[in-house]
Amino acid sequence: MITCAVVVPSPPLLVPALVPGAVERSAAVRDATLTAVRALAQVNRHWVAVGVASGRHTVHPSTRGSFRGFGVDVPVALSGTADGAETTLPLPALLAGWLRDQAGAESVRVELVSAHADVADCVALGERLAGADEAALLVLGDGSTRHPTAPPGWPDPRAEAFDATVGAALAEADAEALLAIDPALAADLQAEGRPAWQVLAGLARSSGDWGGELLYSDAPFGVAYHVATWDRR
Description:
Elements: E1 4-8, H1 27-43, E2 46-53, E3 57-59, E4 64-66, E5 75-77, H2 91-103, E6 107-114, H3 119-129, E7 136-140, H4 159-172, H5 175-179, H6 183-188, H7 194-205, E8 210-218, E9 225-232
Parallel strand pairs: 1-7, 2-6, 2-7
Antiparallel strand pairs: 1-9, 3-6, 4-5, 8-9
């Protein structure tokens, strides 16, 4: 049964080798993320992760891949070491494997949910995951890409209020507030983390009382990044 969850963003800049010119500028979100996942590994070294991709898919812990498609050949493994045959993986699965290694966890199984999944589908997946063998859940997803610090012509005035609501919901472990996020608004604001957050909300709503703590919430590059921990009471 899952008793602890961590919410992190899913940008390539979490991996220093992929952003050699922005390592210092991205240090705050990276440090918060690593703090959170290392705490998760203290709860349980076997994780299940939820990320957002083009469709519903499970990536098993025996899988290996590389960030080669993002410009640097940084190998990752979802368990053990990064030796053996590689599979082309979406970014959330690659980051789950990289974070697993950074935290010293043993394995991570990645459940990918469609970017277009409706709320009911997200809730259903969360309810199924509530009884998973793993006790620790890693949730990967970014907030809106359309904050005032975004490139000229791209900001949306709704982005700040949207991510303030997300940050408050994560801080309070407020499953109902996450479930109330409008998928159409999230799509307009390019907040690709919406389905993953609603999977977490579905899990929490079906498995008792949860408490939350927000470790980071900011949009340093025009994209909102949230880091939070949830614990079952």
